[in-house]
Amino acid sequence: MQYQCHDNEPMYVEKLGILKAITDELDNTCYAIIGDSNANLCDIDNSLFAGHMINFCSENNLKISSCAHLPERSYTYVSERWNTTSWLDHVIASNDFHNSISKINIMYDVSDEDHIPFKVYINSDNIPKLTSSVNNGREKIKWNNMTDNDISKYCMLTERCLHDIHIPTEAVGCRDTQCTNVNHIESINKMYNDIVSSLIQAGEESSQNKKRLYTNKPGWAEYVDSLYDTSREVRHMWVNAGKPRQGPVYDLHVKSKARFKYALRFIKNNENALRKEALAKKLTELNPEAFWREIKTINNCNTPLPSSIEGVSGGKEIVDLWRKHFCDLLNCVSNSSVDMCEYDCDTSYDEIVVTVEEVTNAIKKLDINKACGSDGICSEHIKYADKALVPLLSLCFTSFLLMDFCQSQCCQLYLCQ
Length: 417
Fold this sequence. Notes:
Number of helices: 17
C-alpha cells in the first residue's frame, strides 16, 4: 500500500477499492489479506490511513486478525531515521480464515529495523469444508416494480421453456397407488425440477430490476451515474474476453468497479448532506413542487418506530411479544404431521386426480408480494406464467399424491403452509 501522506490518500482509498473488487470476485469465503497496510493501529488518532483501513474491514465484514491475536503495543516497523516504531503490517481475514488462525507471532529476533516479519499459525481443521451443494443466493425479483411489458415478456419466455419440458408418459400414467418404481419417482422429480428451473430462468431474464441500485439517492447523477455506466461497459468487455484473472483487461475491470463502489459509498455516507444540498438547489431554482416533494420524502424516511405495542415497551420486550404471538399462531394445530399426511389407502385412482380446473382455481387464490418458497418460486412466478404451466402442475401433483410421495422441495412448502 502507498506510503502514508496526504498526497497519497486518494490513491490509498482507490487501492482499498481494488481489494474490495478482488475479494468480491472470489468464489470462496476463506481468504486473507496479509502484508504492509501502512495503517498504524498503534496510534489510530494520528494515523492518516488507519481510519480508512478500519472502515474498509467493517464495511466488508473482515477481521483484523493481527489485532485480535497480538498485544495492543505490538509493532512491525522500526524507523531508524526517527527512532520510532509503528504497527503497519497486518493480517486482514474473512470470518472463516480468522476462525482458523490459532496464533500470530511477530519475529522480533529476526530484524531490528524496517519491517519485521511475523508468522501466522493456521489450524486446518477449522477451515470450512467445501461441498458440492449449491448455495441458492438469488435475490428476490421485485415483481411490483415490473412493467406490463416485463410481465408479458415473462409469460412469453415461460411458454417457450415449458413447451420444451419432457413429459414422462409412463410415470404420469402409472396407476399403482403404492408405486415403488425408482424410475417413475425420478422422472416425476425431474419433471417438477424442470418446471421450477424454467420459471426461475424466465423470471430472471424478464426482470429489469434484479439490482436496482441507489439511483434515487441524492448525488447519484453527479457522482455515480457515469462511473456506473463505465463499470458496466468494462465488465461486458471483461466477460467477452473470457473473464481473465490477470492482464490489462482484468486490471481495468477491477479499477472501474472500485471507483464505482467508492463513489456509491460516498453518496451513501453523505446522504443527508447531499439531500440538503439538493433541497437548497431546488429552492434557489424556484421549484416549489420539487422542493416540497423532497421534504415529504425526508419526513417519511424519519418516521419514528412506535415505542409501545399493545402496552408493551422496550426493544427486548416487544421482540418477546412478537415471538409469543407467532409461536401461538403457528402452533395452533394439534395434529401431528403424520396424522395430517395419512389418507385412506383404499381410495380409488379416480379420486386421486388434481384436475386442471383445481390448479387454475388455486392459482387465482394465490396472494402476491409474499416470500418465495423453498424452491425459489414466488406466487407471481405461477400467476404470471403461460397457461401451459397448469396442465404440467396437474400431472405433477396428481403423481405426487398417487404415488404417495412428495418432491422434496414441494414437501417443505406444503408442510409449512
